[in-house]
Structure formats: C-alpha cells, structure tokens
Amino acid sequence: MENLKEKSTQTTVARINNVEIIVIENGEKRIAVRPICDALGIAYQSQIERLKNDPLIGSTVMLSVTVGADEKQREMVTIPFKFVFGWLFRIDSRNVKPEAREAVERYQLECYNALYNHFTSYAEFVEQKQELIEQQLEVVEAAKLNFKNTKTTLDEANARLKAIRLLTFADYDFERRQLKMFTPEEMEG
Q1: CB 19 within 8 A of CB 39
Q2: Which residues share a beta bridge with 22?
Q3: How far apart are CA 19 and CA 23, in angstroms?
Q4: How far, in Å, CA of 25 to CA of 36, rounded?
Q5: Roughly what angle, to the nearest 10 degrees, separates helices 44-53 and 33-40?
Q6: What 8-state DSSP symbol labels residue 12?
Q7: Which residues of 117-138 are buried (b: 16+ CB within 10 A; e: fewer)?
Q8: Helices 33-40 & 98-166, crossing angle to 10 degrees?
Q9: Which is nearest to 68 in space by CA: 28, 2, 22?
Q10: Is the Cα dihedral 28, 29, 34, 35 positive or negative?
Q11: For 129, left (φ over 0), alpha (ψ -120 to 50), or beta?
C-alpha cells in the first residue's frame, strides 16, 4: 500500500460546506463519492446505488486508495472526475442540507447555462455570421456603385486630359480668333 500512496497524487479541486473535494490521480483523475455526499447531506448508499445503476457511469464506479484527513490510507468508492459534474447536476436540490441548497441550485443553473451555450453556440455563430455577410454585401454593393461612378468620372477626366494634350497651338490660335458674342449657356436661356 505504501507504493500506491507514492504513485497517486491528490489535489483539492473544491470545497463544499467546508469539506475538501479531492481529485485522486493514479493514471486517471477520480473523485471520492462519500465526501461529496457528506458535504451535501445526501444518503451515501443510495447515491452509490444510483451511480452503479447508471448505464454510462456504472461501469466506472470503483474503489480507489486515498489518504484521509487523518493521513491514513483507505479505500473509497470513486468515479472519474469527468462524470462528477453530471452526477451533481442530477442531484435533487430538495434533498440536500438546507445550507447547501443554494449552492447546489446555483451550480445546476450554471450547468443549464453551459449546456445551452454549448448546444446553441454553433447556431448563434451561423446567425451572426449571416448578419455580418448581409451587412458586408451592402458595403460591397455600395463600393461597386461608387466604383462604377468613379470609373465613369475617371474616364471622362481622362478623355478631357487626352483632348487637352492633343490641343495644338494652331487649335488654340484658331479658337482665340473666333468672334464669340454669346456663350452656349446664354444662347439657350
């Protein structure tokens, strides 16, 4: 047994009603069931039966060596750490100690929120992405229209520039000598 104590490590992961909840690591992280039952004031034996009869958790319930508060090694019924959260979620808060009820219900509400966020986050992502796409499509369409207008303005400006560059002194001199009595705008008006 001394060998088992050296190979396994224990880490406190939570405190429930002043009871330390310890993860036992001996190749796998496991949690002792009794300290949680004691902390919550729920019947240990009925919880063990519920865990053993659970179609998913049942095969994982086992005895593990742990060191108690008195520094003595003892075997305790444990379940894998990853299943503790689901087990606690299913505990009826009306059956726990009155001083633990609020904490259990707060934890369970957090679980409901976590499940909601997990299962709806992809749909939320798709919805937000679609909104962003639609907004960006409007920006792109406005830019295309602006580009088209700018291209027309640019083409006209380039045509005027080309005409100016092609202007010769003779053209200039000819235009200058023409007698202009009215401008085109004055003739229309």
Answers
A1: yes
A2: 12
A3: 13
A4: 17
A5: 130
A6: E
A7: eeeeeeeeeeeeeeeeeeeeee
A8: 100
A9: 22
A10: positive
A11: alpha
Phi-psi region of 71 (alpha: psi -120 to 50; beta: other; left: phi over 0): left
Backbone angles phi, psi at 80, to 5 degrees: -60, 140
51-73 burial: b if 16+ Cβ within 10 Å, else e: beebeebeebbeebbbeeeeeee
Condensed to tens digits (0 to 9), the pLDDT of residues 168-177 reads 888 888 877 7
- Mean pLDDT, residues 3-31 taken together: 64
Distance CA 24, CA 74 (A): 12
Residue carrying the six token digits 């409007």: 138
For residue range 81-91, list pLDDT tens digits in order: 889 889 999 99
Q: How far apart, in Å, are the Cα atoms of 174 and each of 165, 168, 171, 177, 182?
A: 16, 10, 5, 5, 17
